[in-house]
């Protein structure tokens, strides 16, 4: 089976044409590091690493509870799933365009038109490899978010309805923000934090009076993984 995401052959084919863009010494240097460039293209970072997901996205200040972290994982995973599906459609269209170009190339008699078709075919081939690379990275993120969903789903919150956990998690967020306020904080900032915290406390009381208290409380101290 032909290796996916391999642009080495395409780089080699494009080398002669780089003489139109680069100086001879630059073309020579490009040829010398072709293998390195292919390796760079293959392993370049695309989207977030596992470390960035945990410490940049799921940070404790923004998502202070396991429930908040879990539901953010759901959002992130779904975004990559939807993008992967759209990418799959684009890939299928690109494959059809390649077949159409190959057919035109076989039938074309005019030398200049044939040359143009070859350029378009190379471009479509590069697009194909790039889509394969992006798809692999999107699938990697989908898998990582699945890992984090399992890690944070400790059984202390409703994992069926996103709304159930939100009031408690927002309360912790606003309390954290309140603790960062200083005498130098601006009036709008203070007004916003205290106003939202006051609203959360009011809604909590209203829900209690209506018997809408959450069935389970969110853990104050994160406990990773479901408990036996």
The pLDDT mean sits at 88
Largest sheet: none
**Number of continuous helical runs:** 8
In terms of DSSP E residues, the strand content is under 5%
Give the % helix: 55-70%
Alpha-carbon distance between the two ends: 45 Å
Order of helices and strands: HHHHHHHH
Brief synopsis:
With 228 residues, the protein is mostly helical. The protein has helices at residues 8-14, 24-32, 34-43, 50-57, 66-107, 111-152, 163-180, 187-209.
SSE diagram, text form:
Elements: H1 8-14, H2 24-32, H3 34-43, H4 50-57, H5 66-107, H6 111-152, H7 163-180, H8 187-209
Helix pairs in contact: 5-6, 7-8
List the keywords:
70% helix, 228 residues, elongated
Give a verbal description of the structure.
This protein has 228 residues and is mainly alpha-helical. It has a domain at 8-152. It has helices at residues 8-14, 24-32, 34-43, 50-57, 66-107, 111-152, 163-180, 187-209. Helix 5 runs antiparallel to helix 6.
């Amino acid at each position: 089976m032909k290796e996916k995401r391999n642009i080495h052959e395409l780089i080699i084919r494009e080398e002669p044409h780089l003489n139109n863009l680069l100086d001879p010494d630059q073309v020579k240097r490009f040829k010398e590091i072709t293998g390195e460039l292919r390796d760079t293209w293959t392993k370049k970072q695309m989207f977030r690493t596992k470390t960035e997901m945990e410490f940049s996205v799921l940070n404790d200040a923004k998502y202070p509870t396991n429930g908040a972290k879990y539901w953010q994982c759901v959002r992130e995973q779904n975004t990559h799933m939807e993008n992967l599906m759209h990418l799959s459609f684009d890939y299928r269209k690109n494959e059809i365009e390649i077949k159409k170009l190959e057919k035109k190339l076989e039938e074309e008699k005019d030398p200049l038109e044939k040359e143009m078709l070859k350029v378009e075919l190379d471009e479509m081939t590069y697009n194909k490899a790039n889509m394969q690379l992006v798809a692999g990275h999107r699938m990697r993120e989908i898998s990582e978010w699945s890992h984090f969903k399992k890690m944070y789903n400790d059984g202390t919150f409703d994992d069926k309805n996103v709304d159930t956990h939100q009031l408690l998690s927002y309360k912790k967020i606003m309390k954290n923000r309140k603790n960062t306020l200083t005498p130098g904080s601006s009036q709008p900032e203070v007004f916003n934090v205290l106003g939202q915290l006051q609203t959360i406390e009011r809604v909590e009381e209203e829900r209690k009076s209506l018997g809408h208290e959450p069935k389970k409380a969110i853990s104050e101290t994160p406990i990773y993984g479901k408990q036996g």
